[in-house]
Specification:
binds phosphoenolpyruvate; alpha/beta; eight-stranded parallel barrel
């Protein structure tokens, strides 16, 4: 049984004060959650504040939005896995489509980061997904296969099991247009099938695959009730604590 994982990707938003207010509201709304893994992924500048606001709550974990593959050194403007660990970060989002398209990240770069994350005992959330043009040309499976194989090259079975995949069709990110549950399930099933080929059936069955792309309280339940959808990576709707809490609760209904 895979434990669902719902993550809030705040992108380049949220001051320290807004972050603290968000966490306070979320904790009140969700209470003590253990059946779902909840991850907050603030900008680097708010990570310490979110940690402080979480207090003794062990059930909500911290994530980061990116990292460099080197551990330290002369890389002005970059953050390493070791520095993230120092802030008690547990997850790191890698290969987000905004990183790929706006900052030129290739599968090879993503792969270096994924391996560096595992070496530092950080769990990567690896984003993959096709553009609308690629979908229209019938190339969804080809693109997902290339991105998966490239980003995950060289991982052991244990590392693969500890990796989360986020299927995020680029045309659905921040557009208000989510994939239908059927489209998403079809892609997730293909991803799991590909993971089995990369590794083996048992490992593939254990890997959690999140859906991301315009997830909102009103579509979250239907998406997460699909057999191969193990949670959500939420952008826009994660900036409001009440809508994010509703999405977490939608994942919970599936678990209970
Ligand atoms: C994202 O940024 O990962 C994302 C899925 O954004 P949104 O929910 O706003 O589409």
């Amino acid at each position: 049984m895979r434990k669902k994982i719902v993550a809030a990707n705040w992108k380049m938003n949220m001051t320290q004060a807004e972050s603290a207010a968000f966490v306070k509201s979320l904790l009140l709304d969700l209470g003590d959650i253990t059946d779902i893994e909840v991850v907050i992924v603030p900008p680097f500048t708010a990570i310490a504040k979110v940690m402080e606001a979480l207090g003794p709550s062990q059930n909500i974990k911290l994530g980061a939005q990116n990292m460099h593959w080197e551990q330290n050194g002369a890389f002005t403007g970059e953050i390493s896995a070791a520095l993230l660990r120092d802030l008690f970060v547990r997850y790191v989002v890698l290969g987000h489509s905004e990183r790929r398209t706006l900052f030129g990240e290739t599968d090879e770069i993503v792969n270096r980061k994924v391996r560096a994350a595992h070496e530092a005992m950080l769990r990567p959330i690896v984003c993959i997904g096709e553009t609308l043009e690629q979908r229209d040309k019938g190339n969804v499976e080809k693109i997902l296969s290339i991105q998966l194989r490239g980003s995950l090259a060289g991982l052991s079975e244990k590392e693969l099991h500890e990796t989360v995949i986020a299927y995020e069709p680029v045309w659905a990110i921040g557009t208000g247009r989510n994939a239908t549950p059927e489209q998403a399930q079809e892609a997730h099933a293909f991803i799991r099938h590909t993971l089995a080929k990369i590794s083996d059936e048992t490992t593939a069955e254990r890997v959690r695959i999140q859906y991301g792309g315009s997830v909102k309280p009103d579509n979250a339940h239907e998406l997460m009730s699909q057999p191969d959808i193990d949670g959500a990576l939420v952008g826009g709707a994660s900036l409001d604590p009440r809508s994010f809490a509703q999405i977490v609760k939608a994942a919970r209904e599936e678990e209970l």
